[in-house]
Amino acid sequence: MKCRLILLLLLVSYNGYSQGHYNGSSFNPNDYFAPHEGFIIPVWYGYANMNYYNSSGKKSDQIITSQGGDPAVLNIKQNVKTHSFILMAIYGGKGKIAGANWGMMIIPTLNSPTASIALDYYSQQTGSGTYNFTNKTVGFGDMYIQPIWLSWKTGDFQYALNYGVWAPTGRYKPNSLDNGGHGYWSQNIRAALKYKPAPNINLSIAPTLEINHWQKNTDFKEGSHLTVDAGGSYLLNMRGDEVGIFGHYTQQISDDNGTEGHHASDQIAGIGAFGSYWIIPKKIGAMLRVTQNFSAENRFGGLAIQTGVNVLIPNKH
């Protein structure tokens, strides 16, 4: 059975204040579809260098927040650098469910406070002034669980349906520098389509709807977001080594609720490229990804780099 190198970097949260958990371009173009039978254990490191962009899409040292309806202008220290460590457990099941290949995944997170946590902190300040985010601790973040991962194949086309939730397992306390999570649940609903125009080429598109819930110990619920991911990959050889490009666009599609928080719609886009190489064919693989974000409004954006290895353990027949 043909194996694929899976990359799922949902954990490098480089977005803005309470703007959901899912980041566009977290998947490679082939990775919306159920994996091969057996276990995949990826171990990854992610680095991001981010800056805040205001509602006009301009880099800014000021964040305008709304606490209880009263505006506050915060002067912030730009250039938020983040580090994330990712250990995942992915399972591709035997047989089929409703004619589909199937799988599941669980992803705990370990990270330094991310740019989204930084903007969370900034946005909860109640008065104007200068605020510096200097926390450099490392702790557990929120956990992603995807119990539904189905894909069907017809000719040169492949279809997928995914459902997952982000559980608020990371530490969260309002107005704290030590937060590692967002303090709320999020649901991710995704459909995906892949087309194979040639034996070595794959093209895919995948819209994701993220629905966010009320934040713990605050009167705030972030609006829903719609992200459209698209990309392509090229198979270099029979070993399975691969290169590809990807891109995404994320837009907030419903209003925030509650009396606390930022209450400003956000958006972001990004493009990137990846390359994968089998150190031991079909058993141990390495990958490098680079993503550049742009068109950010009311959130952090910038450069993100991820690298790591994947270990594949196929089912015994």
Helix and strand arrangement:
Layout: E1 38-53, E2 62-67, E3 70-76, E4 80-87, E5 89-92, E6 101-107, E7 109-111, H1 115-123, E8 129-131, E9 139-140, E10 143-154, E11 157-167, E12 186-198, E13 201-212, E14 220-221, E15 225-235, E16 242-252, E17 257-258, E18 267-280, E19 284-297, E20 299-314
Parallel strand pairs: 3-8
Antiparallel strand pairs: 1-4, 1-5, 1-20, 2-3, 4-7, 5-6, 6-10, 7-9, 10-11, 11-12, 12-13, 13-15, 14-17, 15-16, 16-18, 18-19, 19-20
Question: Would you write up a description of this structure?
Answer:
The structure is a single chain. With 317 residues, the protein is mainly β. It has a single domain (38-311), classed as monomeric porin ompg (Porin, Beta Barrel), CATH 2.40.160. Helix content is 3%, strand content 55%. The chain is built from 1 helix and 20 strands. Strands 1-5-6-10-11-12-13-15-16-18-19-20 form a 12-stranded antiparallel barrel. Strand 12 (186-198) and strand 13 form a beta hairpin.
How much beta, percentage-wise? over 45%
SS-based class: mainly beta
Radius of gyration: 19 Å
Low-confidence stretches: 1-17
Number of strands: 20
User: How are the strands ordered across the major sheet?
Assistant: 1-5-6-10-11-12-13-15-16-18-19-20
What CATH calls the topology is Porin
Determine the CATH superfamily.
Answer: monomeric porin ompg
Q: How many strands, what sense, and barrel or not for the largest sheet?
A: 12 strands, antiparallel, barrel
| Number of DSSP helical runs | 1
Q: Which sequence of SSEs, written as H and E, runs from N to C?
A: EEEEEEEHEEEEEEEEEEEEE
How far from one another are the termini? 12 Å
Instruction: Give the oligomer, counting copies of the same chain as homo and different chains as hetero.
Output: single chain
Domains counted in the coordinates: how many?
Answer: 1
- The dominant shape is globular
> pLDDT average, as an integer?
83
User: What's the CATH class, please?
Assistant: Mainly Beta
Architecture in CATH?
Beta Barrel
Helicity, as a percent range: under 10%
